[in-house]
Amino acid sequence: MAFRRTEEDVLMTATPFTATILGSPRIGPNRELKRAVEKYWAGNLDRSGLESVAAKIRRDTWESLTAAGLDSVPVNTFSYYDHVLDTAVLVGALPPRVAGVADDLDRYFAAARGGTYDGTDIAPLEMTKWFDTNYHYIVPELGPDTSFALHPAKVIEELREARALGIPARPVVVGPITFLALSKAVGGAVAPISRLGELVSVYGQLLELLADEGVQWVQIDEPVLVTDILDNAAELAGQTYKVLGGLAKRPALFVASYFGELTDALPALARTPVEAIGVDLVAGTAAAVAAVPELTTKTVVAGVVDGRNIWRTDLQSALGTLASLLGSVGNLAVSTSCSTLHVPYTLDAESELDPALRSWLAFGFEKVTEVVALARGLTQGREAIAGEIAASNDAIAARKSDPRLNNDHVRERLSSILASGAQRGPAARRREVQQDRLGLPPLPTTTIGSYPQTSAIRVARAELRNGTIDTAEYERRMKHEIAGVVKLQEDLGLDVLVHGEPERNDMVQYFAEQLTGFFATENGWVQSYGSRCVRPPILYGDVARPEPMTVSWAQYAQSLTDKPMKGMLTGPVTILAWSFVRDDQPLADTAAQVALAIRDETVDLQAAGIVIIQVDEPALRELLPLRSKDQAAYLKWAVEAFRLATSGVEDSTQIHTHLCYSEFGEVIGAIADLDADVTSIEAARSHMEVLDDLNAAGFGNGVGPGVYDIHSPRVPTTEEMATALRNALKAVPAERLWVNPDCGLKTRKTDEVTESLRNMVDAAREARADA
Ligand code: GLN
Ligand code: ZN
To answer: Domain check: are 393 and 264 in the same one?
Structure first.
């Protein structure tokens, strides 16, 4: 089926759809894809074995979405690793260093993970967070020699596969503006976004090809349009979609946005010939959509079902939102606010959920049924879904009145502590009393918290879970691990020790399991990156700490040494960032409650004789709002939560924090404002910059810029770390400089860690001698 030139013609030939989602989970309901790709990497599964697992996951997904009643189903949202990397392949933008890998799938995995191919070491591409989610994408590298060219095999094959099954398939691709905005220039190449014109012509070829395949609709994802990453986003959107919309042969175009409001990019898109625009109505408002007159000739795909959190939709209110758009838009379709990639597959996999809690929730599959119900309500009238609305109202009312959502004791304590100031003494005075008490050498050495998660630890955890051993035996084994880690640190001559965190598999889960107001899922896995999945806890109610969570481990570890043992906690922002969080009150209020629980823990640690306490905030940057106008308010509450968590102790108790995984640029001022006595910060890639930035932000406390990258198995030499320290000393005086790795050591092997830390301690000695 070929389309002619004008917008009207395209609309006439492309059947409008009424119910869809923007994308779906793809790791398999029981993480089948994770297992299969890991076997393939290990050489225990061949390519056709892997492909048949993947094909089954795709088929099951499409069939279940179609059977549930979606009349347009996203395809090409499957991925062996990451959809941004898939897009790099689609447009021919893999870096030259992987070109020598002959097999296309291995080449793809080489870009994602690096490795040794035919005796050559290939470094992987970088990975970073996808907008403000905890999903990580592969950052495409565009060099001076990158020349875009269409490689459509994946999308065409998946499309044909779906159509052969009778699926109303809608191919999905990451859009050209978003792709370039998320790419990085390498080798002195021009800014990626300046190559938009070139890339748009490759997308034009793709659209023509899809039209030849008889595709009616194609979804082009442009989430970057809801951010301030580009300063001329609206203009670029207008130009790009005018060109693509003006193509003589193409399917109907559905430009999808999510994670925020389009603001001025919405009218800009509405003035182009695209047929449909997707808006996130969980993050944004219907009024902003109704205000754009050009939308009266467009299909608006209204994301009223939250695609990234797990709460059941208020169907009555969502139907009201949809109804408010009738008349302002040409056509209205119902959707999730974003891909459901960010939520688990289905509640059916949870057998131990309290029935009340279950009724408040909707995972991926349940969200599809909500979309379908709303679309029915929209076309057939409210009465047609009266039963669904009643059930949703009941669940929402029950949730509102559940006593677990409102703990007066916590709320009263919180307001009285906040009213009393929740502040520590001045930093300089704290430094003085801590110095007297701790008597540490200049450039003290320490580590970030975790030590290798050995197989003995994993076995113990599994045996405790399946009942082979009891808690007492488990604790005995963990203590054995702790003793080993303490002895190692004493032998190496580190100055401030840690217990190694053997009892924590995932740190956020560890705290969530011990706090009220949280519950854990059994099978609520969500892809974090590649084959790595996480199971975020659900923070549903008021948070309280019934009893100490870490004190006995810390106390035991301290009993083994005369050196100071750091207590090890996770900060409120990070606990929120890595959980599904209640949506019935501002995040700031929830953060304060978590902070209070952490504060209680610091006070108990101090009472147990712990003199240094670290409160990690690696996710501080992750929750930063996508629009700059919202960032200051976020940073304010994030800093307040950290200060609330850490101001319950005496000035003589030293508070550390740790940050990693991100570019700190926009949050550097907030890091300084945390006012921790010591901040360890990932810096192996650029020592000087982060220290200069901290200085520029007026930071005058202790700082430990990571002296080596823990992501690589390579053992760093004494010399390179000594050089790093000498460089650091140009920015920070010896009295303020700490020596530590970039991050925790849990993913490394014991031998690597031993050698690396031995060299690190030697490097510190050398640097001390020169300082
Ligand atoms: N203390 C934690 C660890 O060492 C910090 C983890 C992190 O920064 N992500 O593992
Ligand atoms: Zn870290």
So the answer is: yes
State whether 431 and 476 are in the same domain: yes
Residues of the chain with pLDDT > 90, as a percent, come to 93
DSSP output for 364-391? HHHHHHHHHHHHHHHHH-GGGGHHHHHH
In a shared domain, residues 344 and 431: no
The answer to whether residue 275 is domain-embedded is yes
Count CB atoms within 10 A of the CB of residue 152. 20
| 612 domain-assigned | yes
> Of all residues in the chain, what percent carry a pLDDT higher than 70?
98
Give buried/exposed letters for 180-219 (b at 16+ CB in 10 A, else e).
Answer: bbbbebbeebeebbebbeebbebbbebbbbbbebebbbbb
pTM, two decimals, is 0.94
Q: Tokens in use for 251?
A: 């399917």
Structural domains of the chain, count: 2
Kindly report, residue by residue over 407-458, the tens digit of the pLDDT. 999 999 999 999 998 899 999 999 999 999 999 999 999 999 999 999 999 9
Q: Where are the beta strands (DSSP E) in 484-565?
A: 516-519, 526-529, 532-534, 538-544
Annotated binding site for 5-methyltetrahydropteroyltri-L-glutamate: 31-34, 129, 134, 532-533, 578, 622
Q: Rounded to the nearest whole angstrom, what is the distance from the C-alpha of residue 728 to the centroid of ligand 1? A: 22
What's the CA-to-centroid distance between 744 and ligand 2, angstroms? Answer: 6
Q: Is residue 290 part of a domain?
A: yes
Same domain, 604 and 719: yes
- Sign for the pseudo-dihedral over CA of 541, 545, 549, 554: positive
Query: Which structural domain, as residue segments, surrounds residue 529?
Result: 427-768
For residue 712, pLDDT over 90 is answered with no
| Residue 128, in any domain of the structure | no
Kindly state whether residues 348 and 463 are assigned to the same domain.
Answer: no
Q: Which residue's CA lies nearest to atom 1 of ligand 1?
A: 449
Q: Where in the sequence numbering do the catalytic residues fall?
A: 711
Establish whether residue 278 lines the binding site of ligand 1, counting it when its CB lies within 6 angstroms of any ligand atom.
Answer: no
pLDDT tens-place string over residues 495-518: 999 999 999 989 999 999 999 999
DSSP type of residue 249: S
Whether ligand 1 lies within 6 angstroms of the CB of 569 is answered as no
Are 361 and 452 found together in one domain? no
